[in-house]
Amino acid sequence: MTPGARTQAAIELLDAIVAAARDQGPAADTLIARYFAGRRYAGSKDRRAVRELVYAAIRRAGERPVSGRAAMIGLAEGDPALTATFDGGVHAPLPIEPGEAAAPAGAAPGWLVNRLQESGLDAGEMAALVGRAPLDVRVNTLRTSFNEVRSALPDALPLPHAPGGLRLPAGTNVEQLAAWRDGAIEVQDEGSQIVSSAAKVGASMNVVDLCAGAGGKSLALAAAMNDRAEILACDIDRSRLSRLAPRAARAGVSIIETRLLDPGREAAALADWQDRADVVLVDAPCSGTGTWRRNPEARWRLTPERLDRLAATQRILVNIAATLVRPGGAMVYVVCSLLDAEGAGQVDAFLTRHRGWCAEPLALPAGRPHSAGLRLTPAHDGTDGFFVARLVRPC
Predict the structure, then answer these.
(1) Which among 86, 106, 126 is the end of a domain?
(2) How many separate domains does the chain show?
(3) Domain boundary among 66, 85, 106
(4) 38, 143: one domain
(5) CB neighbours of 63 closer than 8 A, spacing ≥ 6?
(6) How does pLDDT run along the chain (395 residues), one tens digit per residue?
(7) Are residues 179 and 194 both part of a single domain?
(8) Which of 128, 248, 318, 373 has the fewest CB atoms found within 10 Å of its own CB?
């Protein structure tokens, strides 16, 4: 592909991504994979170059662009080489007209910038939310030791804060590594590893992972428990939860029981766990503002209405979780969001509704105190963004 053809391909992909963000369609990665599946002539260098253009344009544009062309024209501002590819040649985009609209640069849509500012994030913190994310893995001590994996992966570096993790070179195909096939490593961001440790689980505990998804944190907890006692991993998404069993088998984990929940009937389905759990992890569904480094187009999908719906779901989940915690036990509330409406505000409201519960101070290897919990951010900690709080039920 010529440079102009690469730019045109990026414009076509951005058009599809903008439309999908508007209509809640497929994710950018899915659309990119589909695009190149039907264009076998594009070599690996072409695919990589187009992908980099697409994501650079997405990261730059805070508001959802009016078109892929507007997004690329914005990216071309101040880049003569990219501007030159708009030459009207075969398979290349038409020249940029004087005064033609360009997508403005920004960290997020205006309403979200306001919410992030209200939650205590400055411009530097917001800019880091759409930077590039590293590739982190957690060493699975049920299969091997940290030193053995480090020896097998000489290009990996120890994580700055999570003692059981490694950072792999960008672009590593993890699933092609023998360490992954043997269950010695699991892909998990350093921040996720750190907030999982807030559960403080031990080998004799009964634990509930209320929003387990595909089970990344359940597997981390099982390793910390030395695969003893019991973990109940729940979710309402059958597809995501079904991925946990094969992952557990590969990791050598046997203590996880999965339970599919019906929305609105969770409490009844969990009646046998009432007042029983030593720890309930609530890794609640959220806006994902802390994971924009990995899914930057997600900020174009979020609306105030959707944020309100997510906050309502979070309130329901923490109330359900509270009924499962035994006297003296703990609920660990986690969101990969930096909006107070989903993090600090949810915890403050819970403590107001549930007299006697208290927030236990957290001493984690990264993060800063924020209200009743701790907050990790890409700018300060180099991790995805998280809010975590540990809430203790009175005896």
Answers:
(1) 106
(2) 3
(3) 106
(4) no
(5) 103, 104, 106, 109, 110, 300
(6) 899 999 999 999 999 999 999 999 999 999 999 999 888 788 889 999 999 999 999 999 999 999 999 999 999 998 999 999 999 998 999 999 999 999 999 999 999 999 999 999 999 999 999 999 999 999 999 999 999 999 999 999 999 999 999 999 998 999 999 999 999 999 999 999 999 999 999 988 999 999 999 999 999 999 999 999 999 999 999 999 999 999 999 999 999 999 999 998 999 999 999 999 999 999 999 999 999 999 999 999 999 999 999 999 999 999 999 999 999 999 999 999 999 999 999 999 999 999 999 999 999 999 999 999 999 999 999 999 999 999 999 99
(7) no
(8) 128
Query: Which of the residues are catalytic?
Result: 336
The residue segments making up the domain with residue 249 are 190-392
- Tokens at 390, concatenated: 């540990």
- 369 CB burial (10 A radius; 0-12, 13-18, 19+): exposed
Q: How far, CA to CA in Å, does 176 sit from each of 144, 147, 172, 216, 249?
A: 18, 20, 9, 19, 18
- Which residues have a Cβ under 8 Å from the Cβ of 339 and sit 6 or more positions away? 115, 116, 119, 287, 289, 307
Dihedrals phi, psi of 269, to nearest 5 degrees: -70, -20
Residue 116 lies inside a defined structural domain of this protein = no
Residue whose structure tokens are 């944020």: 307
How many Å apart are CA 232 and CA 125, to the nearest integer?
36
Structure tokens at 199: 């559960």
CATH code assigned at 145: 3.30.70.1170
Specify the amino acid at residue 32. Answer: I
Tokens of 272: 């046998």
Query: Do residue 297 and residue 170 come from a single domain?
Result: no
> 179 with 210, same domain?
no
Neighbours of 170 (CB within 10 A): 9
Query: What would the two tokens of residue 139 be?
Result: 């060493």
Alpha-helical regions (H) of the chain? 3-23, 28-37, 44-60, 68-76, 80-84, 110-118, 123-128, 146-152, 178-181, 190-196, 216-224, 238-242, 244-251, 266-269, 298-301, 304-324, 344-353, 378-381
Rounded to 5 degrees, what are φ and ψ at 162? -90, 110
Angle between helices 68-76 and 3-23 (to 10 degrees): 130
| Overall residue count recorded for the chain in this entry | 395
Distance of alpha carbon 87 from alpha carbon 4, whole angstroms? 7
In this structure, the answer to whether residues 47 and 168 fall within a common structural domain is no
